[in-house]
User: Fold this.
Amino acid sequence: MEMPNLLPSYQQIEPFLPEVALIAATLAVLLIPVFSPRKNILAVAITTTVGLAVALIGLIYTRSLAMTGHTYFGGMLVLDPFAWFVKLLLIIFTGLVMALWFVDSHRRMVSRGQSGDAPEFFTLLLAATTGMMLMTGTTNLLMMFLALEMSSLPSYVLAGFRKTHRPGAEAALKYVLFGAASSAIMLYGMSLLFGLFGTLDLAAMHPHNLMDANRIVLVVGVVGLLVGIGFKIAMVPVHFWCPDVFEGTSIDITTWLSVASKAAGLALLMRVLTLLMHGGDSGDAWMRWLPIALLILGGITCFWGNLGAYPQQNIKRLLAFSSIVHSGYMLVALAAVIMPGEIVDGGETAQMIKGPAADALLFYLFMYVFMNAGAFMTAAAIAQRIATPTSSGERLDDYAGLARRAPILAGAMLLFCLSLTGMPLTIGFATKIKLFSVLYNTGQGIGWIGVGVVGINTVMGAFYYFRIIKQMYLVQTDLPRVIEIAPATVLSLVLAVPNVAFFLGYNWIDEVAHRHCAISLSLPAEQLPQSAQADVSHR
Amino acid sequence: MLHTLMPILAQVDAAPLATPGNWTIPLLVLIPVIGALLTLVLTPKDNPKQACILALIISLAPLAIVIMMAAQFSRIAVAEGDVAVSGWHYQFAYNWIPAFGIKFLMGVDAISLWLLVLTAVLTPISILASYNYIKERQPEFYAWMLILHAAMLGVFCARDILVFYLFFEFTLIPMFFIIGIWGGAERRKAAGKFFLFTFAGSVFTLVSLLYISYLNFKANGVMSFAMDDLYRFGQTPGAISPHVQTLLFFGLLAGFAVKVPLFPVHTWLPLAHTEAPTAGSVILAGVLLKLGTYGLLRFLVPVLPYATQTYAPVIATICVIGIIYGALVSWVQGDMKKLIAYSSVSHLGFCVLGLFAMTPEGVMGSVLYMINHGLSTGALFLIVGMIYERYHTRDMDQLSGLVRRTPALAFFAVFFVLSSIALPGLNGFVSEFLVLLGTFVSGRTVDGVRMGTLGPAYAIPAATGVILGAVYLLYWTGRVVFGPLKEPVHETADDDHGHHHHVPDLSGREWAVLLPVAVLVLIMGVYPIKVMNSLRAPIDGLVKSVNQPPMLDTGMKTADASVTLKE
Assistant:
């Protein structure tokens, strides 16, 4: 008797080399303390770097596979241009966070005579990254949940990583509780969807064929999904964890959560919604309410983030609210992406689809990495340079006269603030015009509403970004100049350059985003839509 | 290289204009930027005042280029007639963002040329005027001035509306710092208010211009922000439906009106002008306000002719209110800088009124007004700055009879006041008269085409602004320049050695600051015909395109659209 072959073949594994590399690195980092002295930072650094490098090489190696879009493991995982691009962003960004940890948190801990807990930190970081990468490439509800939890659980621990830090512990607890609640709601929504369609595969679900009586169940199910994913991207009303966690954790985790978590969450949301909206008739009520709901949620998120940012005195908290605002912008863009009747076949095979503005979201995500991460990293560098025993260097008051005290870092911060405001010559302006044009291109009334929301919020945002600039440049101080030459400064400058360079190279980024915005639709034969359709119609 | 260098002006022999090469304008914009970096790097730490000299020398380079351009314009005009210089010259094109249709299109026509001249003249002057005024962080100050210079030059050269907007918006950043760091006591508030007002307005403008280009894309299938494409699209009858035109009109207006500033949204201006350092006030009043009127002239009016005709009375009413309101408020100011700041509200009302009169005279007056207001008001701010440097006050109650202490300064003060109140023979008269004339005759029909929608009903109340302008400025002159000698106590007190504290008259540097402006004021007042001739062709083209009858009402058919509007 022949044993069934449970091990996947190389052909099946090949498209997921990056994930495999990261899992291997995760395990290796975890085992380092067993074999080497407790404080062997070097081994951890090398292992993590090698892991990320291999993942990156693997990713580049799988690009040609990704461009055609395929489904693997019985529909569990998908590799398509869209997933590939977001994975690329995630890997690059994880590398940046790693660098930030070494130049900031680690140095600080070592200078206080504490061990950096590097192995644990990187185990968690790499595990979460793996989870996020899986999030970007699945159409299966079960896999979606697993991936989400795989990225969330290490994130909870990372939020409370500073064991002796009280606000950190509080933040982590809040994070866990909110996370658990939203996961539960999401699971509930998923089970309703499963009950409704008899399949876990989103691509096989066809909400358009449902009978009216089942619509309400569908709506509850989708809302559940939205809550679960919205939690990751700090969408109002499930954003409450965001400011506390961002303030309570060390700045590397803050950066990580504000960018990576959001990128993965948005990628997942876009895939889910695009698939749910695909193939419908634009006259369908279902098709109309989802973009509108998303637009409203995005709008509320923008306003909430902006209003919340005004009273903030802590730079990390302020940037946390600013990142909520940018989530809102991306949700508004997403509303345009899934506008009914516009989703078209695209990519290199007919088995891929894309929204009319799918590239806009990728474009935005790409730019956002450099704007937001740059602002956070500069805040880290500034805090590191100006912190005194009595102040953390993270309050806006500490920024007074920074232009005199630390001209390079203040200049970098100025650039990031201008970029986040959306001033010309920065990538913030590029994202702004991209967003507006995407909304116009929907050619519908709700596009106009989106334009209004984004326009008003752009102006509102200028108020608090310019508060930072005013503190740095217009306020005088007698405090001495600080020494700016530090690895953290270099890191922030590395991120500052693309803020201008990518604006000038707008066209290139736009083309890259355009090439990678298609989402795979291909299904294994046994799950082709017609069977699902038949299922649904007799329900 | 990806760039394509576009041919210059088909109908004339382009060779004379082409000699500096098509890279003239990029060079023009880049020189100040590089200069700003040089100023930061090269200024010796122990002698920061050298930053001023360095910046001055750098800012003379754009002036030289602009003068060279003007010389070539006039050479062609002399050789082949004024029509030969209409259209765009020194064109530069780089296909910057093909995916989004943004081209780096630059070019100069007569209107932009004279505004470039204004910018290139005022910047070195205001840099020189700051030599003693700016006492700290000098290299930074001059670097921001040069960056601002580059942005302003860029605005006047841009022929792609997004590139225009880019420069337009970018001017905010240097000005924010110039007011916020080197300004007076309330500088932070002033800088914030200046920035947020203008930024809020310009977001509306951005949204509207993106929408126009989207409409163009929908109609023609090509994404373009080139002004010429959008003119063609906007002037096509029926291309943009009337109610969309209305929305776009007020959307675009929002940003430009704040910058001008028109009456209800002018509130940022007095504070910004008062708190800014002298150089900041000069540039703000002299050039930055013109970005608003230039935007109206260059984009709003030609792209939305229907809405322009329909809403011209609304704008004109706002302008008239602004003219009278600005003048009355000016009259009661005790702070000299505030007085001149409010006078700008009044004067810019004239400028916009002339533009919306949509007659050749009105628009000509409006364009001249931009230049003349920049010279006169810029000079008045310089004068107030010089008084402030001597007495450390701008309070009119504390000063009087300056003519006894500083006769030369008093002479220039009176001279520029007269130019500002439009004394015949000085520059203000030409533009103010043309604006009022143009408004008065607006609405009449010439060869079957109705020119503009205004009329005496707007010109007459606006003309009261002329009288009021004379009232508040002469009132100021009478109180401060003439009258019994009165100086702030601490300035006249004897020092320890019993010597009387001496208030000097104009220094050589100050003569060098004021004299060029005075000469230009005189030239523009006595012999403006050169400038006017060169402006005639582009202005006639503009007026003609806006007064295309099909948009106005169906009652008036355009039997002959080719009619010339030459007077």
